[in-house]
Amino acid sequence: MGVRLIFKNAVLTALLSGEIDHHAAREIRSEIDGTAERVKPQKLILDFADVQFMDSSGVGLIMGRCKLMQIWNGTVEIVNLPPKIERIVSLAGLNQLCTIEKGEQNEAGK
Amino acid sequence: MKPENEMNLSFPSYSANEAFSRAAVSAFVAQLDPTVDELCDIKTAVSEAVTNCIVHAYRSTIGTIYINCKIYGDGKVIVKVRDRGCGIENVEQAMQPLYTTAGEERAGLGFAVMDSFMDRLHVTSKPGKGTSVILQKTLRRRTSENG
Q1: How far is Cα A19 from Cα B40, in angstroms, rounded to an integer?
Q2: Which domain holds residue A35?
């Protein structure tokens, strides 16, 4: 549960996993920011492939990282967004803030 | 109508209990044979309500959060999340999307998510006394056409 970070070619990839709620978001935020502020990547990729659950605390987490990346004109990309998390992301209008690439239809989703 | 089954839960407002509380409600509601999507909606709404108690109601203290969950024969689920925290001065304002009083990167979407993921949302609050959030959803009764 949490986040694993990979920095390569000016791109910082955060492989998120588990359930992202208010409790988990704190640790994920400090992990990402700790590295991002040091390496100042051109792009931050948030990979949701292994995320099972997310509430609006995760929306806050994404919005906050977009704000951080804007400081040095970096961009944020959301990838592998599972269908069940997509709904809360679109409710929040996050597509206006960053690029979103949807994940494959999860067989457990139906 | 009398509920088919009912459960009560009370726990301290530690953020570690957010995952526990939505899992507990989800496990109880599973008796009604919900779809994965329906269960996900209920889990998300409960998580928002409980997080509000932790972040707002018991902002600088640890208090008790109470959950009551009733399930009915027609597929109706009612979850009540209650606290004895600081209460909300202006419920209508608090329910506006993007409105938030907490810094700490809150999106201000808690009530909007509860409203959108459930059939009914009812909030009552008394400043200094606490807040009660009632979440209601009727699950689609699934016929056994696929065997």
Answers
A1: 12
A2: 2-109
Structurally, chain A folds into a number of domains equal to: 1
A42: distance to nearest CA of chain B, Å?
Answer: 22
CATH number at A79 reads 3.30.750.24
All structural domains of chain B with their residue ranges: 5-138
* CATH no., domain B5-138: 3.30.565.10
What does pLDDT average to over chain A? 92
- B112: contact with A, CB 8 A cutoff: yes
Q: Give chain B's length.
A: 147
Tokens of B16: 């570690």
Q: How far apart are CA A44 and CA A42, in angstroms?
A: 7
Which tens digit of pLDDT belongs to each residue from A74-107? 999 999 999 989 999 999 989 888 899 887 654 4
Put simply, the chain A residues between 34 and 93 with a CB less than 8 A from any chain B CB are 53, 55-57, 59-61, 63-64, 84, 87-88, 91-92
Which position has the token pair 């004895």?
Answer: B84
Mean pLDDT, range A6-31, rounded to an integer: 97
Count of CB pairs separated by less than 8 Å, A with B: 67
Q: Is B16 on the interface with A (CB under 8 A)?
A: yes
The residues of B that are catalytic are 48, 52, 106
Quick one: closest CA in B to A67, which residue? B105
Whole-number Å distance between alpha carbons of A80 and A109: 14
Question: Looking at this predicted complex, what is its ipTM?
Answer: 0.91
Tokens 């920095």 belong to which residue?
A7
